[in-house]
User: Which sequence fits this backbone?
């Protein structure tokens, strides 16, 4: 982890959100960074296997039950979530749910219809 974050830091890339998982074969690091293309290039040059996914970021209510209400709304969209993790927008003081799904367009429309602020989706590593 230290090597990975050092590579990004040396390249001037800011890590905005990060979560790690472990599997039998290798570790998985999911992150949102300030420059996904440069991060992909720098990490690949150092031998890391890199895959970019399209994800959605949704503002959460910063109160008890906020995530549960979001998940109830997602249930209504009939889309499956592949993974979800929480980050925090320091500038706006807003918690954010980062979501990966096979049908982001349908999910985005459903959440917008229910009043959620969906941030720009993008490719993240």
Assistant:
């Amino acid at each position: 982890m230290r090597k990975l974050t050092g590579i990004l830091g040396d390249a001037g890339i800011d890590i905005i959100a990060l979560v790690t998982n472990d599997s039998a074969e290798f570790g998985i690091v999911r992150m949102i960074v300030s420059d996904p293309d440069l991060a992909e290039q720098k990490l690949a040059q150092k031998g890391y296997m890199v895959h970019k996914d399209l994800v959605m970021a949704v503002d959460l209510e910063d109160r008890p039950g906020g995530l549960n209400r979001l998940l109830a709304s997602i249930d209504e969209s009939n889309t499956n979530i592949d993974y979800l993790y929480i980050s925090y927008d320091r500038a706006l003081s807003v918690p954010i749910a980062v979501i990966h799904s096979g049908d982001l367009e349908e999910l985005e429309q459903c959440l917008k219809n229910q009043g959620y602020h969906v941030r720009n989706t993008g490719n993240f590593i």
